[in-house]
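Last lecture ended with a question: if I hand you only a sequence, what can you say about the shape of the protein? Today we answer it with a concrete record. The protein is Major facilitator superfamily (MFS) profile domain-containing protein. Below, first the input exactly as provided, then the predicted structure, then a couple of comments.
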Amino acid sequence: MFDKEELQEHSKPSSLSSISNATTKREEQLHSVSNSFTDNTHLAGQQQHHVGYPGEKYLANQSQHQSHPSDILDTEAQATNPAEAGSASGPVPPDGGYGWVVVAACFLNNFAMLGYMFSWGVFQQEYTKNSFPGQVSAVSWIGTLAFGCMYMLGGVFSLFAAKIGYNRMVLTGSIFVSGGLVAASFATEIWHLYLSQGLMYGMGAAMANPCVLSAPATWFVARRGMASGMAIAGSGMGGLIFNVVIQKMIDGVGVRWCLRILAILLGVMMIVCGSFIRQFNSTGKKATHITRSDLEILKQPTFLLMVLGVMTTAFGYFAPLNLLPSFAVDKGLTSTQGAMLNSVLNAASFFGRFVGGIFGDRFGLINLCLLCVVASSLTTLVIWMLASSLPVMIVYSVSYGLLGGGFISLLGPILAEQFGTGSLTILVGIVFGVNGVGSLLGTPIAAALLSAFDNNYKAPIAFIGGIMMVGALVFFALKLKAGGKGRRNP
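The predicted structure:
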């Protein structure tokens, strides 16, 4: 940039007309940048007075660095569209840096909190076999309550997360998660488990889930899908390990001590996550409530289609995890082999979520989400419907894990891509809230069909695959409405 002497030199009457015009234009740019720099310096100063936890000092320094006039000019020159240039009053996401620490923290939380939930089929099998024989539908409501509360209450807790911070919400959630498991270990009636392992655990998960789903997307733009996929892949890895570990603990020390040990493990991992998770604020302000601009987003056809597609797909998405172990036992396999199928599914889901984010960045997030839902539906209707032996069940577990794993990991990045990150926590809470409606009702409906058709699994399998195909049609409409790959918003 020109310094003051150069500007004065170029403004002399003897200067050429072309140089004078260029100088005037440069002065206008400097005046505009100066105003932005003043606002951002004030914001950075506010941040410096509140440095005291991991990552916050990075945020303050990053804000100061990004707010330098020359940096802003460079960023504006490099952006491919106005949205990518970032907010006029806030820094641009670094696409790395402390963002990778946030990704690791979210991975650990998902490994523990969701990994346990994706192993619910082991508890379903244990409870229906030993604790509450024959009560398949009644027992399924325990896991369903946990999933449903996590998603449906997420929209409410996302408002608190935006106001008090991600770290406090995750730490509070860890208390409810651990407390729910400890309380469940003393249960003597099935309704005790509804309140503890279902409702209380689900509330704790609802506090943490919107934070860990949205935080990575706020730190990245070009690698947003990859970062979010890496973070949520922790749930697949956790499901892989916990399915085996939980079954071993139940066989070794019993279900009650298994729950107590899990309470300690999950609590510690969530506390670690809560100590490091942070949101990168690219808007320069906190989203403490739903604003008028948020309400406008809620009315947009693209958002409404997103909500409808997620809710419809969720009716079938979670049911295989809950029914596969009992399906395997019904076909003559052991409970250990049934738990192994869920482990295989979760292992495949780990790779599906990670790779899905990478391919989503390359080929379009909505495009890949549509492919995942269609393929998950087809594998359910064809492979699972015809499965009667362990090898075929393994093929289904691998296929469904790989393809279905991408679906859930792409929702946060799609929201960030279409609507920006300013109110991402609130939007994620809303979308996953309606997702909870599907997850809350899907498995009980499938279990009710199983009972109605004399323990014939073809009826619930047809329901699961069919309802997911309906969801795929809605996502196809979303693709047409959004157009192409969508836009990238920081």
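Comments.
1. The two ends are 27 Å apart (CA to CA).
2. Residues 99-482 form a domain with the Growth Hormone; Chain: A; fold (CATH 1.20.1250.20).
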